Amino acid sequence: MSSNGTLISMKDITKVYQSGKIYVEALRGVSLDIKRGEFVAIIGPSGSGKSTLMNIMGCLDMPSAGSYDLDGHPVAEMNINQLSSIRNQKIGFIFQNFNLLPYATTFENVELPLIFAGKPGVVRHKKAMECLERVGLADWAEHKPTELSGGQMQRVAIARSLANDPDIILADEPTGNLDSKSGSEIIDIFEELNATGRSVVTITHDMTIAARCHRIIKIKDGLIESETRNGSNKSAIS
Ligand SMILES: Nc1ncnc2c1ncn2[C@@H]1O[C@H](COP(=O)(O)OP(=O)(O)OP(=O)(O)O)[C@@H](O)[C@H]1O
Ligand SMILES: [Mg+2]
Question: Ligand 1 pocket, 50 CB below 6 A?
């Protein structure tokens, strides 16, 4: 861990997408630090650059310019193997549509990152079951995702994201396909994970969910428009 506890440090990040002759400036200079143990919501209109920012945070995509240090390591200097291993070890991803393998059991879905990490079978079994227990789904280990409700599927996705004990959970609209009760249960789990020291960053359109996070970052037109902390109305333009 970096000495001052900063997990994510971004400076002047820009991202330009090119399709044919058209250039889209999705991020236009974002600077952002996220410390270990923070619980952050990213909000903003559709197309404002939220997913682009999260994909860069998660090393799923590279910025066009600017610098990004993850846990003190400059991401730009990592090769493909280092990037995939840092993703697997440090980051847990949650997506709106769950991204579970439909033909694999819930156990096998949760086991997958442990296979990628090269863990032996006994360790994989113990850890995958621990993670399923943590989200209240140990009894569903042998079921397929199609037999589960949306809320349960998202809990399996959370269990999978926890398999390698990530420092940070990145969630892109994790409650977007859920009813409000199931969505609220997902945020309950995020709160518990945060209380045990993990950083959680979640994109959301739902202001009741954003209000439960400790810090709200509002993105507009590829820039941070404002930040709010702990439900206070103090807006600090960064
Ligand atoms: N792969 C891509 N190729 C080209 N343009 C893209 C690509 N991904 C995103 N964009 C564009 O970049 C801008 C930001 O997109 P992004 O997906 O980050 O927005 P968002 O804030 O996540 O929106 P939403 O709330 O709808 O998910 C948009 O104009 C979008 O069309
Ligand atoms: Mg998005």
Answer: yes
How does pLDDT run across 102-128, given as a tens digit for each residue?
999 999 999 999 999 999 999 999 999
Instruction: Say what the pLDDT of residue 161 is.
Output: 96
Reduced to 3 states, what is the DSSP secondary structure of residue 104?
Answer: coil
Tokens 């610098």 correspond to what residue?
A: 67
| Domains of the chain with bracketed CATH | 38-60+79-229 (3.40.50.300)
Helix (H, G, I), strand (E, B) or coil at 70: strand
Atom of ligand 1 nearest to the CA of 44: 21
CA of 147 to the centre of ligand 1 (A): 32
Instruction: Quick: pLDDT tens for 144-155.
Output: 999 999 999 999
Place of tokens 């997902």: 186
Residue 15 CB less than 6 A away from ligand 1: no
Report the phi/psi class of residue 72: left, alpha or beta, with left for phi > 0 and alpha for psi in -120 to 50. Answer: left
Using CA positions, which residue lies closest to atom 16 of ligand 1?
49
Spatial distance between the Cα atoms of 123 and 120, rounded to a whole number of angstroms:
6
Q: Is the CB of 204 under 6 A from ligand 1?
A: no
At 229, list the tokens: 């902390």
pTM for the model: 0.93
